Amino acid sequence: MSRSTMRSLIEQHIPIGGQWRQGGGALMRSVFPADQSINAELHAADLDDVEQAVAVADRSWRAPAWRDLPAHHRARVLYRVADLIDAQREPLARLQTRDNGKPLGETRALVDSAAATARYFGAVCETLDGVLPIPRSAEFMTFSSHEPIGVIAAITPWNSPIASEMQKIAPALAAGNAVVLKPAEATPLAALALARLFEQAGLPPGLLSVLPGRGSLIGEAIARHPLVRKISFTGGTRTGRHLAHVAADKLIPTSLELGGKSPTIVLDDADIELAVQGVVYGIYSSAGQACIAGSRLFVQRACYDHFIQRLQQVACALRIGHPEQEGIHLGPLINHAHRDSVATYVASALAEGGQLRFGGAAPADAALAAGSYYQPTLIEGLSPQARACREEIFGPVLIALPFDDEEALVAQANDSVYGLAAGIWSRDYRRALRLAARLEAGTVWINTYKKFSISTPFGGFKESGLGREKGREGLLAYMQQKSIYLGLDATPMGWSQ
Ligand code: NAD
Fold this sequence. Notes:
The strands form 6 sheets. Strands 14-15-16-13-12-18-19 form a 7-stranded mixed β-sheet, sandwiched between helices. A 6-stranded mixed β-sheet has the order 9-8-7-10-11-21, with helices on both faces. With 497 residues, it is an alpha/beta fold. The radius of gyration is 24 Å and the shape is globular. The protein has helices at 3-8, 47-62, 64-67, 71-87, 89-100, 104-127, 161-174, 189-200, 215-224, 237-250, 272-284, 301-316, 336-351, 387-390, 406-414, 429-438, 471-476; strands spanning 14-16, 19-21, 27-31, 38-43, 131-134, 140-148, 151-155, 178-182, 208-210, 228-234, 254-257, 263-266, 296-300, 355-358, 377-380, 397-403, 418-419, 421-425, 443-446, 461-462, 465-466, 479-487. Bound molecules: nicotinamide-adenine-dinucleotide.
C-alpha cells in the first residue's frame, strides 16, 4: 500500500456537528516521533466548535433518524464501518504509525481490533433484549427497556488511538447516543479518518463530532457542557480523577479506563522459556507505552537468576528501529519530553539503590538519533517503596523483584494504588487460579499476556478505573433502563391495609 493512500486519509478539516470545516482554534501539528517530520497541520477546535458539536449532537440523538431506528439498522452502519476499515487496513495502520510511532505490526493489530469492535457491538446491539419481562401479578405486569443516555463525551489517549476510540464510539452509537470525541493532542489523525468512514457507512450527520485540541480547554469544555450526559474517558489517573469530579458535580455517569503498574509473576514451576517470552512481550511491546504493561516482575527466588539471565538475552536481541520497517519490536516513544520523563524515572531508581541490569539509555545508533527511542531496560535491587516501583513509567522499563513465598508475594503485588492487570506464569493451573483470585486486578492473564477478546469485559480495580468496556457490559454502559408498569386490574385502586 503506497504512502499516498495513507496521505489521502489525512483530513484538513474536522467534523463539527455534521459539517466538515476548519476548526476555530490554533494550528496544531501531528509529528512523526521517528524523525520529528510533520505529518499534518490542522486547526484545533475552539469553544464555539464545542458548543455547536454538542448542540447538534443533542438534537441528533433525539431525532427519529437514529434513536428510533431499529437496532438491526443501527447495527448495519457498524458492520459497514467495519468493512470500510478492513478495506483501508494498511493506510489506517500507517496513519497511526506516523502519529504515534508504534511499529506497523502493532498498528495493524489496532486497526483489526477497531473493525472487530464495530462488528461486535453491531451484533450485541441487535441481539440485546429490548424488553426484559419480569414476574407478573394479576394486578399489573412490568418490563424494562434500555434507552440511550444522550450526548457522550469520549476522551482518548495517544497510545492506541483507533482501538480505544472505537471502543467508545461503537457501543455509544449502537446504543442510540451521539458522540463528541476529543482525541489526544498528539494523535488526531485516526479519529478524523474514522469519522469519515462512519459518514461513508451511512451514519446520519451530527451524531459523531471529532474535536481535536488541548485537553484542559476542549476536553474540559466538552465534559462540562450541560448537554453532555456521560463522560467516557481513557487516559491517566490524574485526569480521570479530575473528570470524575466534573461528572460528580453534574451527577452524570462516567466510564474511566486509567493507568496501571501491573505485576507479572513467575512461579518456580513455570515453563521458563514461555514465561520469558511473555514477560518480554508484556513490558517491551509498544515500548512499554501500554496501560496494561507488565511493569513489575516478581520471580520466585529459586528460578530468579536463571530467569533474569534468559530475559536479558531475549530483551537485548529485540530490534529497535524505524516503526515503518517490518519486523521492528520497539519504535520510538511518543516524543522527546516523554523519553525525558522515562529517563528521569530510571535515574530516580538508580538514586534509590536500584541496579541497572541492561538498557537505561537511548540507543547509540546514529540513524535513530532524531527519534525519541529508548532501550529496553531492567532494574533490580529496588525496594518496593521506591518511586519507580510505585508510579506508572509508561516506557520500556521493567523492575524485577524476587519473592520467597506466596503470602509475601500477594501482599507486595497488591501493594499498589493501581489494579488494572496481572500476569501469572505457572504449569500448575490450580495454584495459578488460587493466586489469580487474590490479585486486585481487573484482568489476570495466566500463561499468556496482553491477549484480548472483545466479548470479555475490560477495566480496572482501584485507581485504574471505574466501569467496564467491551462485552455486553460495554454496551450497557451507554444505556439507561426504564421500567414500565401496565395495570391489568379493572377494579379501582385500593389502599393497602
Ligand atoms: P492524559 O490523561 O494526559 O490524556 C488523555 C486525554 O485526556 C487526552 O485526550 C487529553 O487531551 C485529555 N485531557 C487532559 N486533560 C483534560 C481535562 N482537564 N479535561 C478533559 N480532557 C483532558 O493521558 P495520556 O498521557 O494521553 O495517556 C496515557 C495514560 O493513559 C496512561 O496513564 C495510560 O495508562 C492510560 N491508558 C489507560 C488505558 C486503559 O484502558 N485503562 C488505555 C490506554 C491508556
